[in-house]
Structure formats: C-alpha cells, structure tokens
Amino acid sequence: MSYELSVIIPVYNVEKYIGECLDSVVNQSIGIDNIEVIVVNDATPDNSMDIINEYVEKYPSFKVISNKSNKGLGESRNIGLKYVTSDYVTFLDSDDFISQNAYEDSVSKIKKFGCDLLIYNWETYTGSDYVEPISVHQQNTLENKVIDDINQNPKLVFSTASWNKIYHKSLFKYLNYSKGLYEDNLVTLSALINAKRIFLNKDVIYYHRKNSESITENIKNSNVFDLCDIINGLFKLNDEILTPLIIKFINDILFWVYYYNWDVAAEIEFIDKLKKSSGKITENQLDYYRKLFPDVLLYYGDILDLNNYDAETFLAKYKYFNRLNKVNSQASLYVDAGNGFNESDKVAIDYSPLKKNNLEFSLEKFDNISKLRFDPLEGSFVKCRITNNLPISDANCDNSVDDDCQIFTNLDPYYVLDADFSDISSIQINFDLEILTNDDIANLFRQKDNIINDLQVKPKKRKFSFFNKKE
C-alpha cells in the first residue's frame, strides 16, 4: 500500500501517555489509512505494548518493530527508518502528541511549494493551562514561509529537535542518530543545511510533553561530555551558519561548570574536554550572537580566553577568583494581558542572587493584566520563598505553594501570581533564595522513592592542585 507519510514512534516506559499519542495520529484529518505508523518497541518493561497492540489489531497501517534490548531513542529511530516505505518521514516521541491537521496540512504544503523539509510550531505541554515561554531552541514562525537559503533565517539552526519536522526521502541519508543524550542535534542540522527548500508552517502544532516527574533536567557528567562531542561534530560540519549554535552550547557548558558544585577534578576534566572540542571563536562571531540574542547571558570574555589557559588556570580565573560575576543571573516576570505568557510580554532584571532579594518590575506598558508568572532564577535547583504577601496560585515546585518555602528540582522554577493587577504600574517581589547543593538534591531524590539511586555525591576539593606545588 502507498502512504502519504511515515511516522516513527520509539516506545519505552510510556504507558501513561501512549494512548494520547496514538490517538492524535489515528485521528489525523488526512486519514489513518494514509499514514504508515512504525512503532519501535525499545524493550519497554511496562504495559505500553499491551495498549499499542490494540491499535495494531484495529489499524492495518500500524507495524511494530521490537528491539531485543534497550537501545535508546536515537538507535530506535535509526531502526525505524529502515522500514519506511513512503517518500516522507516524521518522528513522534511516544509521550507527545500533535494537532489534528498536522499531517494533511503539512504534506499538502510540502507538495504545493516543492519543499524537502517542513518545520512546524511546537509548544511545551505540561498537562495544565500553562504554556511554556519560547526558548532560543523554539524558533516558531508567525507566518507561513518558504526559505531557499537557511541564511534567510539564521535562528533556524537553534531548531535542533527532530520531532517537529517532516523530511523528504532525499534527506533520509542525513538521518543517522547517535547514542548520546543530544541525539537530535547533528542529524537535524545536517538535514537543515542540506535542504534545498524549507517550509515554515505556522498552522500546525506539536505538543512536547514536559513531565514534572522526569529527572532528565538533572545535569550530570554525561551531559557535559555528550554536548562537547556535539560541539566537535558541529565544527566538523564546517558551516559558518552553525557558529551561533556552537557558541550557545559552549556557553551552556560554562554555565553548568560555574553554577553547579562539581568536584574540582571533574571541572578540570570538563574544561579540558571543551577545549579539545572547540575551535577558536572570534569577537565578531560573539558580537553576532549578541545581536541575535541581546537578552541572553553570554560569557563573552570566558569564551574568547578558553584556549588561552590550561584548565586549572581557566577555572581559577573565571570561576573561583571571579565568582561574583558568575552568579549574575536574570529574574523574569511574564505578563498575561490576554495572550498568555510569552517572551514578548516579559520584564527581565539582571541581578546577583542573594539569600534575600528585593526586585521591582515595571508594568506601565501593560493593560488588563490577569496573571503574572515570576521566574526567580534559571539554570539552578533552588529553594525559594516569596516573603511579601503576593497572591500565589501555582508553582512548578516539588512541594506545596502553601509550605514555608518551595523546592524546585527543575531548571526553570516559576510562580504564578493570580489577582487583579490592572491598577498597578509596578510590582515589588521580595524573596529568599538558596541554591541547592548536590547533597540537598540527592536527599530530595532519595525521598522520592529513590528515583535517582545511583547519584554519587563526592566531597568538594577545596584547593586546586597548583596551590600545593612545592617551590
């Protein structure tokens, strides 16, 4: 049978969500008979396959490929690609779902405009009415648009996810996923820079689930090493359009090194690995990145000097002897004036987080404010408490908003303030803040039924080795 589109769905431990995912596919307006559904059972230990088999029995366009052992998301996608029979393929993570018109609308536009790659909008889905603000990786389009050259929209290189795209068979040769934590990046970017014609589709939405029970945001050594490998791979692609993304990833690793309480030996290993993975970044390239993202914290001088010092000296200069500058961060206030929370309706303040903080946000340019979302700090696990009497209706904390303080084991903590804010021109937020240590985090996760039972917390070395060298 001939299909309009193939969709590959790797499955592992998603019995809670797989029904919603598959329903979004079988209810597509294009008709399930026109969709080749390739489910890759990645040796899932739960009851996901019992649910999937009900769909297989009902819909002839479903096929199941079973891995004998767990191979991970990237390799499961590679296996699924071997069974594609249509001219177009897309990927759907098994805990996500898509809008009802996604495939019909997209395939129609691909054919109409002769495109070999289509990218559609996505939103982070939390299971509530709250919609995540757009990040630099979420390069959504506000209009339907055809691009013949990626330089017409350089921010597209930040759209590194595989799952909000449809690929023509001419791009299949670039879809060879790695086994690391960032399996999407090199594959997606190879397809992007080799695509001859790209359609940006504003009329379709992919809903990417943010699971509040997930521990994937807990940064580990493997995150650093795998992202270094991606940086090295991006340099090897040797395309100037990728430089802003390389800078973003280098900046991310430096951020992790600066903010987390690693063992110094691990930090030295991280910087050594980063130095070997990174080519020379110039001032002009950093200035261009700043032009693209003027409000994003950028370790400008640190990146320029990365290859000018050995790892120990770099850490001493840029982390331990210059610590105050490294803890500068940003607090954000998102304003819902009828359009939900989004980046265009945000007030941001740069500050140095202290145990007690007092920030005042101007609201003069906003009318009819119904809700506010306050993000005290990004990129750290924190304990926080708003100390002035503000109407807190929700927070993405691990405990209750009614507790004396809120504990956040995610990297994007927020509070939702719900009241009539229509007559105020500013709001002051007083809050206590404490960045959680590795010991704190380990204890918290152990309390959650040992979600992380192999977390190794090593004591912090207090001195660099060169302090101990004899004269």
Account of the protein in words:
The chain has 471 residues and is of the alpha+beta class. It is 30% helix and 22% strand. It contains 13 helices and 18 strands. It has helices spanning 18-26, 48-58, 73-81, 102-113, 185-194, 221-237, 243-259, 264-277, 283-292, 300-305, 311-320, 323-326, 438-447; strands at 5-11, 35-41, 62-66, 88-91, 97-98, 117-125, 145-147, 165-168, 198-209, 329-336, 346-351, 356-362, 371-375, 382-386, 392-395, 406-408, 415-418, 426-435. The strands form 3 sheets. Strands 1, 2, 3, 4, 5, 6, 7, 8 and 9 form a 9-stranded mixed β-sheet that branches. Strands 11-10-13-17-15 form a 5-stranded antiparallel β-sheet, with no helix packed on it. β1 (5-11), α1 and β2 form a beta-alpha-beta unit. α6 (221-237) runs parallel beside α8. The longest helix is centred in the middle third of the chain and has 17 residues, at 221-237. The chain is globular. The chain starts with a strand and ends in a 24-residue tail after the last helix.
Please describe the biggest sheet, giving its number of strands, its sense, and whether it closes into a barrel: 9 strands, mixed
Structural class: alpha+beta
Q: Over all CA atoms, what is the radius of gyration? A: 23 Å
Number-wise, the strands total 18
Low-confidence stretches: 128-138, 212-217, 449-471
Could you tell me the mean pLDDT?
84
What is the quaternary state of this protein?
Answer: single chain
Characterize the overall form.
Answer: globular
Termini gap: 79 Å
Number of helices: 13
Beta-strand residue percentage: 15-25%
Please estimate the helix content. Answer: 25-40%
